[in-house]
Amino acid sequence: MDLSHQIQTGLGNQGLPVPTIQWIQGVMSARNPPPPLPALIATARSRLLAADLTTPALLEASAPAFPPNLDSAQVQETKLPRDILVQVLDIDNLSKSKWEQVEELEAIARGEQTRGREIIRLPTGNEADEEGDDSSATQSISGGSGRPGAAGRAGTASANATSKNSTHRLVLQDCRGQKVYALELRRVEKIGIGTLNIGEKIMLKKGATVARGVILLEPATCVVLGGKVEVWQKAWLEGRLARLKEAVGADRPN
């Protein structure tokens, strides 16, 4: 078995759909001489999780996708017939009103967020990246991660604020470009604004319930694999406040 097929097998053994030989050879061409097989498999996995699943020649034609008309509201309940790899296009916390989320993001943009009666000052610019910066403000909101920029701070703050009782709605897309809404039926720990990236990959397991065209997410049938599409994530973060304001009509002139 040649190296490309060994990488295919290694990814398949990790429960991932099999990329094409053409795509794998493109990954290998960047590593000359090639490293050991485990390192190549790890690189291919990382590149796969960071790729747009709809990219031509990324996955084999037999890669599992949503059945036709899965999003039909006419079907009361059905089950996914196979494991299906999807990517996240959007996430919304249904446990918080749009206006609450607007206020939270505006507070973060001002460099502060309230917790009870306490005002937490957040790091601005690259303050958290400065060596030796052990300010309590940085640690209180980001655990010292030093994630720069307003968008990064917004993601971190939202992540820390995600309640165990939160319910999230996602827009998921398969390798053929089909989009379906998904809703947490039971809390999935890694799903949250600030913890789940746009473009992140999720494996929906065989037997997952689809009710009225919406996939119901629960830990037993939803495996968050990681990754993100960097440009999607950046655009989503930067446009989130404007989208929320539009949704509540807060950007309309009086």
Describe the structure.
This protein folds into 3 domains: 3-49; 77-94 and 166-248, Nucleic acid-binding proteins (OB fold (Dihydrolipoamide Acetyltransferase, E2P)), CATH 2.40.50; 98-161, no CATH class. It contains 7 helices and 10 strands. It has helices at residues 3-13, 21-29, 37-49, 98-109, 136-142, 149-161, 230-248, and strands at residues 77-79, 84-93, 112-115, 118-121, 168-173, 179-184, 201-204, 209-211, 214-217, 222-226. Helix 1 packs across helix 3 (37-49), helix 4 (98-109) packs across helix 6 (149-161) and helix 4 crosses helix 7 (230-248). The radius of gyration is 20 Å and the shape is globular. The N and C termini lie far apart (69 Å). Residues 126-148 and 156-160 have low confidence and may be disordered.
